Amino acid sequence: MPELPEVEAARRGIHDQLRGRTIVGIELLRPGLVQSEAGLTIDLLQDQSIDDTSRHGKYMVWHTEPMALVVHMKMTGQFVARGDGIPGFVSGHPVPAYDTELPHKSTHLILDFEGEARLYFTDIRHFGRIWLVPHDDLADHMARLRLGPDLLSDAFTLEALRDRLRRRSIGRIKPILLDQTTVAGLGNIYVDEVLWYAKIHPSRTAESLTDAEIDRIYEGIVETMKIAVPEGGAKINRSKALTDLGQFPFIHAREGFPCQHCGATITKTKVNNRGTYLCLDCQPERGRLSS
Ligand SMILES: [Zn+2]
Fold it and tell me: Same domain for 121 and 189?
């Protein structure tokens, strides 16, 4: 679930609150979290600091003197920072609840920073990874991921999106947008939001899309990020969904509620086996694959 807005919220939290502070304690509770082809270890962070941060799609990078750390929160990663010396932040998957006592049984890494600040990485499904990469190998490491343009970068233009969708003419639009080599940063929640905004059925083929429809998908991505990034991402919460219909996300996890565009009932289906929410009145199936 952590997608670009949640990863960006974690990056900003780390950048604003922990950057430059000396790391005075490291507790790695699940060794498999950390990987290094170069044989580096997380202990190298002792007495060092995160000097800068960056992000491409759902990958966050911590730049430290001994190495770069490439962080992926995967499906259920959650960062929480607490301590008397910082405002603190939470970002990522909503389970465990953001106010849970930490460490939780699925807390896999704890970093202690000078000045009363502590960062927890918790991941209930154990898919999160941190790759320790020598500085000289970072560019190659990122290039091997073959990521498309980051949604918040200057490289993400209407022309770039059109070009990439034309190359991927066969196949349904939803999985194409989920593929990080098309564009980097969208996941299951935001693709549903974007396609609802653009009024495109998620099973439409890329080749069936008109230029005007691709324009709307581009606009949908830009507008969805404009809402989600400042909010620090989606807070999927069923009880909130019952009351705050005007609140983001507008379509994802809103099955049975009225569409905010037309009032028809939002339905749930599966597209390439991913749970998908849509409004069939706004997003007709025209152009759908026959299979
Ligand atoms: Zn509708």
Answer: no
C-alpha 161 to ligand 1 mean position (Å) = 25
How much distance in Å is there from the Cα of 211 to the middle of ligand 1? Answer: 22
Last residue of a domain, one of 83, 118, 144: 144
Catalytic residue among 11, 58, 199, 204: 58
Q: How far apart are CA 12 and CA 84, in angstroms?
A: 19
Q: Indicate whether 167 and 116 sit together in one domain.
A: no
Catalytic residue among 3, 6, 8, 193: 3
The residue assigned the tokens 């962080």 is 71
**Marked catalytic residue, from 30, 74, 168, 274:** 274
Q: What is the pLDDT along the chain (291 residues), one digit of tens a residue?
A: 799 999 999 999 999 999 999 999 999 999 999 999 999 999 999 999 999 999 999 999 999 999 999 999 999 999 999 999 999 999 999 899 988 999 999 999 999 999 999 999 999 999 999 999 999 999 999 999 999 999 999 999 999 999 999 988 789 999 999 999 999 999 999 999 999 999 999 999 999 999 999 999 999 999 999 999 988 876 654 444 445 666 788 999 899 999 999 999 999 999 999 999 999 999 999 754 443
Q: Is 284 a catalytic residue?
A: no
